[in-house]
Amino acid sequence: MRRKIVAGNWKMHGTLAENEARLTQLTSALEAESNYQVAVFPTSAYLFQCQNLLASSQVKWGAQNVSQHPSGAYTGEISTDMLKDFGCQYALIGHSERREIFHESNQDTAEKFAAVLESGIQPMLCVGETLEQRESGETMTLITQQIEAVLAKVGIQGFANAVIAYEPVWAIGTGKTATPEQAQEVHSAIRQLLAQYDANVAKSIQILYGGSVKPDNAEAIFAQPDVDGALVGGASLNPTDFIEICNAAI
Ligand code: PEP
């Protein structure tokens, strides 16, 4: 039985005061013990705040990005050791905004994944196709390339302690959500791809769906057999909506 994860990607939003209000509302609404995991991803500048406010709660936190390099002259970057200092459980790897806006390649993504794994933090690998790729029938070709680049670097056992987030680029921040059936189809294909390497890893890995998840569509998406939760962008900034999405994971 895979435990569901509901993760909030705050992107470049938030202030100390806004984050505190959001986290206070979240932790007071969630049960101390639950059968699903909640996590938030603030910008790195606010990881210390999550560490202070969430340490005694059931909510985990993680980084939106990390360098593949351990240290050195990489202005503006943050290392895995720094994320460990701030108690991160997860790090997002290869979010489509990193791939598109910051030109991160599959190779960069694989190196970041390896660095995060090595540090003991759980990588949350984001994969997904553009609308053009979907319409030309290339969804799984593209996702296979994204996953195989990481497999070539860390092997299948590297996925034993990782999470995958399937995020169709055309559904991120657009208000267009993949139907539950479209999500299930890709999640199941990802599991089949991994099963070619190791059946146990394929069976146990948590695969989250991301792309305009909202309170009114979360339950139907979570009901799909291969969907193990959600990576939520916009709706995670509104605590009432995010709590409703969390409750749909029960
Ligand atoms: C995301 O940024 O990972 C995301 C899924 O965003 P949204 O929920 O706003 O589509």
End-to-end separation: 13 Å
The share of residues in extended strands comes to: 15-25%
Bound molecules: phosphoenolpyruvate
**What is the helical fraction, as a range of percent?**
40-55%
Ranges where pLDDT stays below 50 over 5 or more residues in a row are: none
Number of strands: 8
- For the biggest β-sheet, the strand order reads 1-2-3-4-5-6-7-8
- Which term fits the overall shape? globular
Rg (CA only): 17 Å
Q: By helix and strand content, what is the structural category?
A: alpha/beta
List the helices and strands and how they pair.
Elements: E1 4-9, H1 16-29, E2 36-41, H2 47-54, E3 60-63, H3 80-85, E4 90-93, H4 96-101, H5 106-119, E5 122-127, H6 131-135, H7 139-154, E6 163-166, H8 180-195, H9 199-204, E7 206-210, H10 215-222, E8 229-232, H11 239-248
Parallel strand pairs: 1-2, 1-8, 2-3, 3-4, 4-5, 5-6, 6-7, 7-8
Bound molecules: phosphoenolpyruvate (PEP).
Descriptive notes:
This protein is α/β, with parallel strands linked by helices. Helices cover 44% and strands 16% of the residues. It has eleven helices and eight strands. It has an eight-stranded parallel β-barrel with strand order 1-2-3-4-5-6-7-8, surrounded by six helices. Helix 10 links the parallel strand 7 and strand 8. Helix 7 packs parallel to helix 8. The protein is globular, with a radius of gyration of 17 Å. The two termini are 13 Å apart. 43% of the residues are buried. The mean pLDDT is 97. Bound molecules: phosphoenolpyruvate (PEP). Phosphoenolpyruvate (PEP) binds next to strand 8.
